[in-house]
Write a structure and sequence with these properties.
Layout lengths: L2 H11 L1 E4 L8 H13 L2 E3 L1 H8 L3 H19 L19 H13 L5 H10 L17 H6 L13 E8 H13 L7 H13 L12 H14 L8 H11 L17 H17 L11 H11 L8 H10 L8 H10 L3 H8 L3 H6 L1 H7 L3 H14 L5 H13 L7 E5 L5 E5 L7 H19 L4 E4 L18 E2 L7 E3 L4 E9 L6 E9 L5 E5 L10 E2 L10 E8 L7 E10 L8 E9 L13 E6 L6 E9 L5 E10 L12 H13 L5 H7 L6 E4 L11 E3 L12 E3 L11
Parallel strand pairs: 1-3, 2-3, 6-19, 6-20, 20-21
Antiparallel strand pairs: 4-5, 7-16, 8-18, 9-13, 9-15, 10-11, 10-14, 12-13, 14-17, 15-16, 17-18
Helix pairs in contact: 1-4, 1-8, 2-3, 2-4, 8-9, 9-10, 10-11, 11-12, 12-14, 13-14, 15-16, 16-19, 19-21, 20-21
Length: 723
């Protein structure tokens, strides 16, 4: 089996698939492998080490080479992280002095003297035209020679790699877990699901694929393999067409549908025909994506296939030649007449939509009787609504202001966020409290009561991943809205990018705000030494890859919020560059070391999203003086070029305030629901684990857990979300 699947298993599960090979004494090589892993911030569990030690040396070497390659990539250590200023964070010059030096170098160069003098004559000099600006003036080897070795510290990250099952079993388990996820997956994970689905197309399949984006990816693979399609609505067919065309299966972004081969057209039309023949009302779903269905009809040529008249009828609805009244139109008509009770009755047939319309129905109710009718419909529908929708509504009600006013935060599935004023009427207090109680009761019934809970307290403030863009792929990444402790003296951000074809300039910056979200200062290429921090220098193109860093001493920062961001000054988008990622390290002051040290990396996340400004997370100082990270995973549209931290300060501050002031539904809430009178609850202290099976919920799986234990970590946090 391809080594790619082994890498997928390690990345998603932190398990090393049990290797096969001749027995032998591989203990010496296994110890060397473990030491090499530790230099990157990983180590083998006791069972994984024992397994490798019992194999031949050659087998262990082969495994070590592959796994080391994977974990180095996970930590961002697979590329060379050079810094513009070779001694960074030492000897970073004053910004104005550095710019004057670059101008002087340009005037001393015969090739650039004339153009530089001309620019000086206008009063404006483009730094990018100066030969010594923005381009490395030393090799990576030169940089390494200038820095001492990193001194080990107890706070360095150590991620344990556990022993898994044989590779084929691990791949099948990972496929079933991702395909059957109750929450949408991010783009990177959807790509992994596509590969896994192709490999597992003839193997065991999940009982259900509840998330439609996941279903579209699996259907794409099944279509190519000639297997039966998983179709429930006509929109499933549209999503599949987008997948085949390499477009957006979430239907958030327009997709240019390709000309489809005849076998594909036949499969899609046959699927549509079967759906609508069994339930003609399903044709009404066309209205939500009418224009896309028109384009799909142009690609499928339904007039060539008279044997599927119901499929042709779907496109007739899209063109307005046939009537198929949608549920939404009936609801709108009733609400337009002020008939809230009637609208709730119609929505009983679509429980998910009823829950999503709940706020509006309650605001529209003009009498206690109408409110009671809405609440009764909701209580009846709850058992038929997905757990993700229940949790989303529960979180919404918790944050619903009791008075008109305040701010509303909107974040779409692509990570685009914006804030607007909240002009809605409040939801009546008694109705809100009654709904929260029945939602918690239904959720408690679904999650079930655990016999023995072993809980890592650091996981309690992790937000539940209720949307696909709630997080991104990477190491140590938590869902949007999560809060995690930050321990260390030095906070160092880093960004790496490598352009594909066009000269591309990413700029790493940090915006510092006070308790009222007002700007204190910033660190960027325009202020290299602000607020006691240090910037590693501006790199303006990355044909071979480039890195930028920012260093801050947390005990000297005179601000309440630190918001790192990556601005695209010019060139390719985040989705267009060959590679790009962001992360942060934590160190003690005495550790020294290179600008990039993988075992001090606490988080590394991919930068793949819309817009020209990325906001991965923020750091907040609490009333107790301690710093905590708040995870954002947001992208701003920005401008086509010349994005700078100074230009988006107000937008960033507004978004940050909205996210900080919104209370996310967390792992702690669900673990409370899992706790009954007979539940044994233990707090994991990082030492000895219980002898028997437990339900462990934490950031990292402890070594030595009973094999029958249920383990939930950020890698499979979606498993906590009930179906």
């Amino acid at each position: 089996m391809s080594h790619r699947f082994e890498s997928l298993v390690v990345r998603h599960t932190h398990r090393v698939p049990a290797p096969s090979g001749p027995a032998g004494d591989g203990s010496v090589v296994a110890r060397q492998f473990d030491a090499a892993l530790l230099s990157v911030g990983f180590k083998l569990s006791s069972r994984a080490f024992a397994c490798l030690a019992g194999l031949s040396e050659g087998t262990v070497v082969d495994v070590a080479v592959r796994i080391l390659r994977t974990v180095r990539e996970m930590a961002g250590d697979h590329v060379r992280h050079n810094a513009y200023f070779i001694d960074f964070p030492a000897n970073v010059p004053d910004t104005a002095d550095f710019w004057r030096e670059c101008v002087a170098d340009a005037l001393a160069d015969d090739r650039t003297r004339a153009s530089t003098l001309a620019q000086l004559g206008t009063g404006v000099v483009d730094l990018r035209t100066l030969p010594s600006y923005g381009r490395y003036r030393h090799t990576y080897a030169d940089l390494l020679a200038r820095h001492d070795e990193l001194i080990a510290a107890a706070g360095d990250r150590v991620t344990v790699l556990h022993l898994g099952e044989p590779l084929e079993d691990e791949v099948s388990s990972l496929y079933l877990a991702l395909a059957g996820s109750t929450t949408p997956l991010g783009e990177e994970v959807l790509d992994d699901l596509r590969d896994l689905a192709g490999h597992c197309v003839d193997g065991p399949q999940p009982e259900s694929v509840p998330v439609r984006e996941n279903r579209a990816v699996i259907n794409q693979v099944r279509l190519a393999a000639g297997a039966d399609l998983l179709l429930d609505t006509v929109t499933d067919v549209l999503r599949l067409a987008c997948a085949v065309s390499g477009g957006d299966v979430s239907l958030q972004q327009p997709t240019r549908l390709r000309t489809l081969p005849r076998p594909v057209r036949r499969a899609l039309l046959a699927g549509l025909d079967t759906l609508v023949a069994a339930d003609p009302a399903k044709a009404a779903d066309v209205h939500a994506h009418r224009e896309m269905f028109k384009r799909l009809g142009e690609r499928l040529h339904p007039h060539e296939y008279p044997q599927w008249p119901h499929a042709a009828g779907v496109f007739a609805v899209a063109r307005g030649e046939r009537t198929a009244r949608s549920l939404d139109s009936r609801v709108e008509e009733l609400l337009g007449r002020g008939d809230v009770t009637g609208a709730a009755a119609v929505l009983r047939s679509a429980p998910g939509r009823l829950l999503r319309a709940l706020d509006r129905l309650l605001r529209s109710a003009s009498s206690p009787e109408e409110s009671d009718a809405v609440l009764a419909a909701v209580e009846e529908a709850l058992p038929q609504v997905s757990g993700r929708v229940l949790l989303s509504v529960r979180e919404h009600l918790h944050n619903r202001p009791r008075e008109t006013g305040g701010q509303r935060l909107f974040v779409n599935r692509l990570g685009r966020g914006h804030v607007t004023g909240d002009t809605r009427r409040p939801v009546p207090g008694p109705a809100r409290e009654r709904l929260i109680a029945v939602l918690d009761a239904e959720l408690r019934r679904r999650v079930g009561v655990a016999d023995h809970l072993l809980i890592d307290p650091d996981v309690l403030d992790v937000a539940l991943p209720l949307s696909g863009r709630a997080s991104t792929g990477g190491l140590g990444v938590l869902p949007r809205g999560s809060v995690s402790a930050v321990e260390g003296e030095l906070l160092r951000f880093f960004v790496y990018w490598k352009e594909t074809a066009v000269s591309t300039d990413f700029d790493l910056s940090a915006l510092l705000l006070d308790a009222d979200y007002e700007t204190v200062s910033w660190l960027s290429y325009t202020d290299l030494r602000g607020v006691g921090g240090r910037h590693s220098g501006d790199i303006i193109s990355a044909p071979e890859g480039a890195s930028e860093f920012i260093d801050l001493r947390l005990d000297t920062v005179r601000a309440t919020c630190i918001v790192p961001q990556v601005d695209i000054y010019n060139g390719e988008d985040f989705d267009e560059v060959e590679e790009s990622f962001f992360g942060f390290m934590l160190r003690e002051g005495r550790q020294k070391g290179r600008p990039f040290e993988p075992r001090t990396v606490r988080m590394k996340s991919e930068l793949r999203g819309p817009g020209r400004v990325a906001l991965p997370l923020a750091f907040l100082r609490g009333a107790d003086g301690r710093w905590r990270a708040k995870w954002l995973h947001l992208y701003l549209p920005g401008t086509p070029s010349q994005n700078r931290v100074e230009g988006n300060r107000l937008t960033v501050a507004a978004l940050l305030r909205a996210i900080v002031e919104r209370e996310q539904l967390t792992v702690g809430h669900l673990t409370e629901l899992m706790t009954g009178d007979a539940t044994t609850v233990e707090v994991w202290d990082g030492k000895k684990v219980p002898a028997g099976p437990v339900t462990f919920v934490g950031l990292e799986r402890p070594d030595g857990l009973h094999p029958d234990s249920r383990v939930v970590t950020p890698g499979n946090l979606r498993d906590l979300i009930p179906a």
